[in-house]
Structures are given as structure tokens and as C-alpha cells.
């Protein structure tokens, strides 16, 4: 999966995405740092003694992607366990479970990805149906948003008496958290290692050089987190731990901050995102609020004073309002400058007004967002609209956040959506709601440089290819490059060649997206497509 990097590498015969030289065809790397960009003939002369020469054959070299929100073990278990994301009906879901049990026996079945809103039956399996398919095996099947789960009777005792318990339907809220912890405890260290390897290998294959793991006591566990952070065989893992506590908790765990999925609320698909007004398809509920403004403010204060990032999972408009109030309270204690300097994070941030975005921008907030959410569930006929009515077309306003100065970092929330960075950039550009998308340049920057900035690396060059920058890049099979036409709805930029704006692959709907040939992290190759010999 990896190899030690040579001291000097020369790449020639390609197209280099660089603000320093948008016409560069060659790049030199020494000791993991980009030292030169320019034309092939000059490079071959200057670096004739390079330890390695990579013939690009027209390949496109660009900064590697950063996935700013993942759950590595869960995403890996989707690859090694029971994948329900392709099930088109309740019957298909039960058939897939039945087939899996036949091969795995009575071992725990970990599955993920069912979405009843896409099924013709428009319902989830009953527990009796699930037990019949499980044949006595303990079964944990998380919904696509991972905020509720179906479980067999063999696991039900872990959830009884908890908020969100259902005798016959999906479990959510604390009942889901309890049963998930029990299911995680049944996964062996070997299974966990296999899942983490599968995920990290796949991320590297997709041109990703760094992932932000959003862990926590209700998501994975301290052993899982420690094992993941100890890995050195793939993309760099930046760890966040979603729990309130003293600042030394982050240091003990090796976490970049007490952030990530520290839940202020749940998810729209499971109807646990906290709303100001009830769900359109369930008027008896407005979701669940897990943290109030004073608790949010206290967490911000502790982290700000310790110089570490705080962060929260926040989706619904009521939860966003609570977060805004929490920041306002914290500002009175620590001051705006300190609050903004800490670069606190908000994960998802799906329902946000213009005024709220402007305040978040003043507080230096990072919005870690997932454009494939909109691609999967946005638009007038999507799940968001089914759950929320006309409010469902107003989610994920990326252009509004960018215009307010909020730092954007793109991610997948894997296993909730697939790890596919070019599709993610494409979805950010072609938002299902007119005017909410980003320019191609802004979206690409948010998925590269923005990911490093979200993790506190803000030196101005990390996440780019220019002299002095870390040699973290991917080589792509992308025969065509284009300079995007500016869009009046989003941030403008000049398309005049003299503006030195690097071109990108076509991202129009239906475009054939680039294929990753090699991924490099600070000069070290972490993925090399074997059938492509460079």
C-alpha cells in the first residue's frame, strides 16, 4: 500500500494544477516538498540526476483531496460487512440479510445503508421479519444516516428503557446509541483492523491523502480511535473526539479537538434533527435537541482557552439557532478574537440563514459539509422535501456560507455517502437548489486546501502545488481540462488566461470523472494503480 519516497522525484509530461504556473507540465519534489514547477525540457536539465522520474503521459497532477468527515471503521465495515445501500426494496433488504447470515453463521451481522424512503413498501421491516431473516444471529443494521438502526431481538435487551426505544420499529436517540455500543463491542480487533485497512486503502485509491475521523463514545470508542490514529500506512488521519469534557481529554486521546460528531441534534432522515417547526410527514415531532446554548458555550470556552478546536454536529434549524446562541454566550467570556482564532468546526450545518452565516463567518467557523447529501436527498422530490415540505429545498446553502466568509471543507460522512471526491465537487457545483452551489474552483479548493485549513493548517500553501508546499498530490487520468465559465450566482473569478487560474476537469452532469492513478502524501506514495505503468 505504501513505499518509502525517494529523495528527489521529477514528474514530466503532464498538466500540473498550480497557482504558481498554470501552464506547468513538470514538477520536482525533494524530501517531500515541491521545489520547482515549469516545462519538461527545463526540468529534465535541472533534475537530470533525480532519484525517480515519473512519466505522466499527459496525466493531470493536482493537490490530493481531504475528506473532512469520515467514520473509518464503519465505512470499512460497509466494505467488509453487509452493504444495504443498493437495496431497492424491503424484500431485497431482508433477502440480503438472509444470504449474509447463511455465510456468517451466528456471528454479529453489521450492516448499513437501508433507506425506507426509496422502497416501494414505504416501511421498515418488523422485528418479526428481521428475526426470521436473522435466524437467531445478533443483527445491527444502521440506517443510511446512521441515526437509527434496525436490530434483531438478540440485541434488543441493550436498548430497553432508553429514550428512542421501539418494540417493533427502528431504534433512535439513546436507544440507538446503546445498541450501537453493544454491536461495536462484539467486533473483534482483527475485524476492526480489516475494516480500517479496507477504508483507508479505498480512500487512497480515490485520490484522498487525509481524512478527518469524527469519533466519539456513541460512534466508535477509544480503542477504535487509538488504533486508527496509530496507523501510518495510508492517508493521514486527523482525529476528532465528539465529547464534552476537560481539555486534557483531547490530549489523552491524541485528538486534534473535542469536535466532530458531538451531537447538538440528530438527522433529518431519522426525524431526529431539531426543527423550529414540526416535520411535515410527522407533525407530532420536531426532532431532538441534545445540547442547549449554555452547554455549547461552556464547551466552546473550555476548548478556546485550551487552544484546541471545539465542534458540533448540527443539522436542523432549531439546533443551528442553539449553536448561534452558544457562540454568542462564549464570545462574552473569551472574546471574539480568541473565539475566531480557535477555528471551531460545525459538521453538516444544513439549515442556516444568511444572518446566521454572517455571524458564523465573524467567529471564524469552519463548516464541514457534504455535497452528496444534496445530490442524494435534495431537490423538490427528494427525502428532504418529503420530511420538511418546502423547507426541504433550502438546505445546504454552500454559496451563502462562502459569501459570509465561513471556511468550507468538503467531505463524505462515509459511510453515509460514498467516498468519491470528484463526484462531491461536482455535487457542490450543481446543487439541486438554484443559487446554492459553488463555482468549480471554490468547490475544488474546499475539498483540498479547505480540508487542511479545517484541521488548523493555515500556512497558505498546504493543499496547493507550488514551491515550498508539501508534495501531497494525486495523478489523474483526465484527458480534458477546462476553465469554467463564471456563474453570477456564486463567487466570480476571471477566466482570462492572464489571471493564471488553473483549469479543472469537466464537471457538468454526466461528465466522465477522472480516475486516480497515484496518490502521494508528502512525497510518499500511498496508492499506485498497478495496471498503469508510469
Automatic annotation (TrEMBL):
Taxonomic lineage from the root: Bacteria, Bacillati, Actinomycetota, Actinomycetes, Pseudonocardiales
Q: Which residues form the Amidohydrolase domain?
A: 52-526
- Alphabetical list of InterPro entries matching this protein: Amidohydro_3 (IPR013108), Metal-dep_hydrolase_composite (IPR011059), Metal_Hydrolase (IPR032466), YtcJ-like (IPR033932)
Q: How is this protein named in the record?
A: Amidohydrolase
Q: Which Gene3D superfamilies match?
A: 3.10.310.70, Metal-dependent hydrolases (3.20.20.140), Urease, subunit C, domain 1 (2.30.40.10)
The record's section on Pfam families has: Amidohydro_3
Highest taxon above the source species:
Bacteria
